[in-house]
Amino acid sequence: MVVRLSLKQRYAIILCFTIAGGIIVYQLTRHPPEVRRMSHMEGLRVNSSQFTLEGEPFRILGGSIHYFRVPRAYWEDRLLKMKACGLNTLTTYVPWNLHEPERGVFNFQGQLDLEAYLGIAAKLGLWVLLRPGPYICAEWDLGGLPSWLLRDENMRLRTTYPGFTEAVNSFFDQLITRVVPYQYSKGGPIIGIQVENEYGSYAKDTEYMPFIKEVLLSRGITELLLTSDNQEGLKLGGVKGVLETINFQKLNPEGIKYLDAIQPQKPKMVMEYWSGWFDLWGDLHHVFNAEDMVAVVTQILRMDMSINLYMFHGGTNFGFMNGAFAIGTPAPKAMITSYDYDAPLSEAGDYTTKYHLLRNLFSRFCVEPLPELPSVQERRAYQPVVILQHLSLWDSLHFTDKPFKSERPVNMENLPVNNNNGQSYGYTLYETTITSGGILNSRNHIRDRALVFLDRHFVGVLDYKTTELPLHDGKGERTLRLLVENCGRVNYGKLLDEQRKGLVGDIELNHRPLRNFMIRSVDMKPSFVNRLQSSGHWRSIRHQPSFPGFFQAKLYVDGPPRDTFIKLPGWSKGVVFVNGQNLGRYWSIGPQQTLYLPAPWLQKGTNKLMVFEEQEADGEIQFASSPDYGMTVDVQ
Known about the structure:
By secondary structure, this protein is an alpha+beta fold. It contains 11 helices and 40 strands.
């Protein structure tokens, strides 16, 4: 049976439901904004076992695409591909740590123009479920929370601790003001707002979720509120008057039964149906079989549930923004730069087998043909470029901010830099003087990984596994240097309050704590990179390079720039910068062996490539037309 509903001044979005083995198709419609403002049409409602929108039955067929993981020039391309797959709803997180990098300093411009992103969704006829946090998880550094919160030694994140709630209120004053005009009731695309994220898995404060709910309502949020938790989290993550949704990958009937029991006669939704999985440095690349995934999606639809594919398109953890995983492991393991996620739309926006299977599935539920597939971005494997110049890290230090003297080690967040907001990302260099050799013991106070040098000579690496290094004897005073990398803060679990980086306590030489440190922030922010690239201190590659160091090359693009992938065989570990922008980290231990370089980061003509390498460099940078994410393993 097919039921078609038509009203004047509507443009169609297709929603479908399966009931009792048959298919009932509702052609749900959208009023133009001016009509909705005049007619006071109802937004998303949960007054029965099905969602309704504008008073009509509605099923959310959603997908997650994070604007902060996709070059702005590609936002519309990715959303068009979402619509062509048969989805009707976009979901996105909002990363607090990018929007407020320093306390009271807000950025909603360029790559972070959330309003422009919402505007594109509206233009394309996509609804939006907004997930503003303040905590988002997302395999993102500190789950999206800004590191300057950790300057408070008593900070209790995701609680009603005053230091946290004051910061949340200040940020939401800025954020929600921008969001309110894009609500459905104002003629915009936002039909739902999520209250925090997976709080049931954290649950340290029973007053916290009511606080976040009130933060939203008091600032003018009028659309449907939802929460999102896995099956276990459902027991503790809810808040009165807010619809609960569930997250999973493999269908668990018990979880669905529990959701039904706590919310009888309410719509059921999988807020995060995990279409793939994330990867960690030193592990294998996770994949989830396409046919198995689509089989579960089919079951979800047959159960009359709404769904959001997490991720529909993963994108990239550009720069230093990756998170870390610390559940069931002896030490945190950092996320890789790629966030491909084995999602239906690849990191570079390519169609995958999953995409085509989903499109075929969703097309069966629709009374109108799906849009034609947008074309795929052209790619190019540029010819290798030769390294032309190098500069030792030690010779670059005068381009950093003024060093800080301290008797004891100071963690990076508490350094007096960045207008007293501390250091958020990158490396921190700790220097002190020693007069003897012996055993250097980190006391497990290194977060997360330190290259150790005597004067400028490399001694070894200290990290969570290796906490001791022998130092040979020498004559007179010598400079001990520890270059400590923040590899990414944990983004999930109960360890968020413990994510200060750098040296977080004393280190000892022969059981005696070292004192009198000179500390430098080597955060590699754009200002530092620009000063470095324009300096006259670079040396020709004919001179033997020293490590760690910076290496420069030039890529000449003849014609329109194309997407490509950077390959660095023969290099060890470091960071790649393209025309001054931080593309992300690479590490020879894999699994990831290529870095996605989107065409918008390049320009016609000469492009500056700079690599910071810790220990070993090859003489060239290579390119490929397709990614290499390493050996695969099935998601368990």
